[in-house]
């Protein structure tokens, strides 16, 4: 696969694979780690996610500006090293305060990568269909996640701290490798004449704001991203607790509660790989897909699956709708990113993608505590139902974005 592609595209696929492997290894059992080792309650569990997303919100715009002003490659590399430090801290220090601090560190690292990676490959591979590039990258990431889930689950059965420590070490190693092999040939700074970091930041922010205001489709797509953030934090943080508290997880041979979560993640990634391949094959056959239809159907499907998951009590039923909910998100995200890319000026790609990430984080900051309090004061299932309702506005925004040719 790599031999037939250009160097930038091959490096992109390799990066998505290894980065996803390391992150998946580190996070596949992180909720179980937080519950059983750090011993967080429901509100603390959501608060950990809120601190992570607050960090992403605060750092997203500055790091996006850095990528567009200085170097997208450099931004990605900084992000990988911060990822590694954050995971190492979280795994080595199993107490509430260090875990919160670790979210700040690797959350900051995530903002250096988000937007910069997409902008980098879009600029380096301008002649390739961007939908296919993002979908193939997503697919390679899912393959890496499968391996990461297997390794993380095996290590977690030995010690729940090991996946975080080894995953962080792999992030640091990947950063060192990328220093040597990651090219950047088509980058041009958004502002040619520099006036100092602060003035450059303000200038680029104003240019970005003016551009977004003048692009109604982009505004609608950013609003959809905000809704997705509102609806994701509760599901990500409470789904494990719902499985543990509201149903009986069957013990089948070596499948204990820890192993089951690894298997669930493994199945979810396998379904995502298959779905991405089917969508890529459809694009190769017909040339394109209707982004409006894909985003609308996956958003509606996600809402329905969330509600069914919340009210379910049978483990097998909950497993089915949980996997379907994850599949909806897997399909939607690269298509939404490609749709957004078509409405972004090349020199401001990283900043606009960072704005998208910032809105996603802001949505999670607002939605997370609301859902967490509902779960704490009423029940976890009602918290999940609340999460589903937070995505409803997206169903009205997708037709707005689709009024122009998608």
UniProtKB/TrEMBL annotation:
Q: Which InterPro entries has this protein been placed in? A: MFS, MFS_DHA3_Transporter, MFS_dom, MFS_trans_sf
Q: State the Gene3D superfamilies in the record.
A: MFS general substrate transporter like domains
Keyword annotations for this protein, in alphabetical order, are: Membrane, Transmembrane, Transmembrane helix, Transport
Cellular location of this protein?
A: Cell membrane
Q: Which GO terms describe its cellular component?
A: plasma membrane
Q: Which GO terms describe its molecular function?
A: transmembrane transporter activity
Superkingdom is Bacteria
In its UniProt entry, what is this protein called? Tetracycline efflux MFS transporter Tet(40)
Q: Which organism encodes this protein? A: Fumia xinanensis
């Amino acid at each position: 696969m790599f031999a037939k592609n250009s160097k930038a595209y091959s490096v992109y696929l390799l990066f998505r694979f290894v980065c996803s492997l390391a992150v998946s290894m580190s996070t596949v059992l992180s909720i179980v780690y937080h519950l059983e080792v750090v011993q967080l309650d429901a509100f603390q569990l959501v608060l950990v996610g809120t601190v992570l997303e607050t960090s992403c919100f605060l750092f997203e715009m500055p790091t996006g500006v850095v990528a567009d002003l200085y170097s997208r490659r450099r931004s990605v590399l900084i992000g990988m090293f911060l990822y590694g430090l954050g995971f190492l801290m979280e795994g080595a220090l199993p107490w509430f305060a260090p875990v919160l601090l670790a979210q700040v560190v690797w959350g900051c690292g995530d903002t250096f990568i988000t937007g910069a990676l997409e902008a980098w490959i879009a600029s380096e591979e301008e002649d390739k269909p961007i939908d296919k590039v993002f979908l193939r990258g997503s697919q390679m990431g899912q393959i890496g996640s499968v391996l990461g889930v297997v390794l993380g689950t095996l290590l977690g059965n030995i010690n729940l701290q090991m996946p975080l420590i080894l995953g962080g070490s792999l992030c640091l190693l990947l950063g060192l490798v990328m220093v040597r092999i990651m090219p950047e040939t088509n980058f041009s700074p958004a502002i040619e004449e520099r006036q100092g970091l602060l003035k450059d930041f303000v200038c680029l922010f104003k240019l970005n704001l003016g551009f977004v205001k003048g692009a109604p489709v982009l505004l609608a797509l950013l609003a959809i991203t905000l809704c997705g953030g509102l609806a994701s934090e509760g599901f990500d943080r409470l789904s494990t607790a719902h499985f543990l508290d509201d149903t009986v997880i069957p013990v089948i041979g070596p499948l204990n509660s820890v192993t089951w979560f690894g298997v669930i993640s493994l199945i979810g990634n396998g379904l995502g790989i298959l779905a991405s391949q089917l969508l890529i094959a459809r694009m190769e056959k017909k040339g394109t897909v209707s982004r409006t239809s894909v985003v609308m159907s996956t958003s509606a499907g996600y809402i329905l699956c969330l509600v069914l998951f919340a009210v379910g009590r049978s483990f097998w039923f909950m497993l089915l709708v949980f996997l379907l909910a994850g599949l909806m998100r897997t399909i939607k995200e690269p298509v939404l990113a490609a749709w957004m890319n078509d409405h972004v000026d090349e020199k401001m790609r990283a900043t606009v993608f960072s704005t998208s990430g910032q809105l996603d984080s802001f949505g999670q900051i607002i939605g997370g505590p609301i859902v967490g309090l509902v779960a704490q004061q009423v029940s976890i299932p009602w918290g999940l139902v609340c999460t589903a309702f937070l995505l409803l506005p997206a169903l009205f925004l997708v037709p707005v974005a689709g009024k122009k040719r998608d």
